[in-house]
Amino acid sequence: MDAVNVSEFDLGNGETLHDITFLQPKKQKENIKRQIVTNRNKVIVQEKNYKNGNLHQDKDIPAMTMRYADGKLCAEFYYKNGAVHRAIEKPAIIFYNKDKEIISKKYIVNGELQRNEGVKLKMFYSDGEYSLEEGAIITHQ
Questions:
Q1: CA 36 – CA 49 distance, rounded (Å)
Q2: Of 46, 44, 64, the residue nearest 54 (C-alpha)
Q3: Which of 8, 77, 110, 126 sits a CA distance of 20 to 30 A from 140?
Q4: Contacts of 28 (CB under 8 A, 6+ apart)
């Protein structure tokens, strides 16, 4: 069984970063890491998965998710080796409203936008909560 190293950091505003590193056997060269941010109510608001220092997730699972303060899904981001990527017939970035309805999808292969569907959005993070504003250009870090 692989060893796990867990560290926690206070981000202020009642938020905590949980940094989880999966220590692989020496013969494997992969470095697997997961970061989780919880809000003051201990609800997960962000999850990121890394492989060898890059955002990455295998098996068609999002490498990064963002959630509203109540824990409902706000956005999913699919990455492969640090580039936004998902098979061409599936969206690589998906935004949801608070009613869990998909409001925007971005189809991206190897970091290159193939097509957009839905409204243009701008994502904000303030006081422990994500919010979306329609009509602006999508921003993502």
A1: 9
A2: 64
A3: 8
A4: none
The answer as to whether 139 is a domain residue is no
For the chain, the distance separating the N- and C-terminal CA atoms, rounded to the nearest angstrom, is 34
Distance CA 57, CA 92 (A): 12
| Spatial separation of the C-alpha atoms in residues 11 and 132, rounded to whole Å | 22
Determine the residue type at 130.
Y
Write the CA distances from 127 to 34, 50, 61, 130, integer angstroms. Answer: 23, 26, 28, 9
Q: What is the pLDDT of residue 5?
A: 85
94: tokens are 């998906």
From the number of C-beta atoms within 10 Å of its C-beta (0-12, 13-18, 19+), residue 78 rates as buried
Residues of the domain holding 99: 3-134
List pLDDT tens digits, range 37-48. Answer: 999 889 999 999
Please report the pLDDT score of residue 4 as a whole number: 84
Answer yes or no: is 129 within a domain: yes
Q: Which stretches in the chain have pLDDT values below 50?
A: 1, 136-141
